[in-house]
Design goal:
Elements lengths: L12 H10 L3 E5 L3 H9 L4 E4 L3 H4 L11 H12 L6 E5 L9 H15 L3 E3 L7 H9 L4 E6 L5 H4 L9 H17 L3 E5 L3 H10 L4 E4 L7 E4 L1 H4 L17 H17 L11
Parallel strand pairs: 1-2, 1-8, 2-3, 3-4, 4-5, 5-6, 6-7, 7-8
Helix pairs in contact: 2-4, 4-5, 5-6, 8-9
């Protein structure tokens, strides 16, 4: 059943909870720089995630682990300067919150003060609850992240679907409910069975955003480079490519090289 879409001039954490209550799906995409964020925001996306996936798509690292807090703040600052409507959520990078709740708070305060971000996102459940409590106590909104948590990739040893076994599935449900009780405003569920994700979304009142978690959740998130087809080496089942920019851009750049080499560019109309 289609739902009338409310026109939010500025999306907030409260807006997202209203969207869930009204049955309106939430759109979320990543962005890491001013130009891309401007385009994403203008197109009407509800939430922009300044993800630690910048480690992969912007810096070329194999995992999300190498990116630093300073680098995340740089990317988030660039995004914030472009955005008028979307809620901007910034990932806390690996090592900035896991071991010490005080360090988690310091990291979150730096992100909020130095980038102007609107909220932070952390990976994990009960094991990081003290960090979440401390951040929330300071008035900083927190988005949770459960299921496949890329910062723990060396623990898992694989990027395959998580929570297929009953014990892990039950822990995930319990962690989601815990995150809601602690005060998180939303949760990302990554690469888990669709039925489990739907169960989680129905068991809590805060929005659940899925990536590879089926259609029974409250919204979806993708990495912008993946959905635009800029990265042609990544083809998981959950990814829908809306463009093939890799082919279009290499074609355009190839034509530019050809025109320069042949002295066709610039022509008389393209010079002073």
């Amino acid at each position: 059943m289609s739902v009338a879409k409310k026109d939010y001039k500025k999306v907030t954490t409260k807006s997202l909870i209203e969207m869930k209550a009204n049955g309106e799906k939430i759109s979320m995409l990543t962005a890491y720089d001013f130009t891309m964020a401007k385009i994403v925001d203008t197109a009407g996306v509800d939430v922009i995630l300044v993800g630690d996936s910048a480690s992969n798509v912007m810096a070329g690292h194999e995992t999300t682990l190498p990116i630093t807090l300073d680098q995340m703040i740089y990317h988030a600052s660039s995004v914030i300067r472009a955005v008028d409507r979307a809620l901007v959520v910034v990932d806390l990078p690996f090592g900035s919150y896991q071991s010490d709740p005080k360090e988690a708070l310091r990291s979150s305060i730096r992100i909020m003060k130095e980038s102007g971000g609107h909220a932070v996102k952390l990976e994990g459940g009960s094991e990081i609850k003290e960090s979440i409590k401390r951040i929330l106590a300071a008035g900083i909104p927190v988005m949770g992240h459960l299921g496949l948590t890329p910062q723990s990739i060396y623990k898992f040893g694989t990027y395959t679907v998580r929570a297929k076994e009953e014990a892990e599935a039950e822990k995930l449900v319990e962690d989601a409910q815990l995150l809601e009780r602690l005060g998180c405003f939303a949760i990302v569920l990554e690469k888990i069975p669709a039925k489990l994700a739907q169960r989680v979304a129905q068991s809590i009142s805060i929005p659940v955003i899925g990536i590879g978690a089926g259609g029974g959740v409250d919204g979806q998130v993708l990495v912008i480079h993946d959905m635009l087809g800029m990265n042609n080496e990544f083809s998981p089942r959950f990814l829908r490519r809306y463009l093939d920019l890799y082919e279009q851009m290499t074609g355009a750049i190839g034509k530019y090289v050809e025109d320069v080499k042949s002295a066709d560019f610039p022509n008389e109309k393209e010079q002073y």
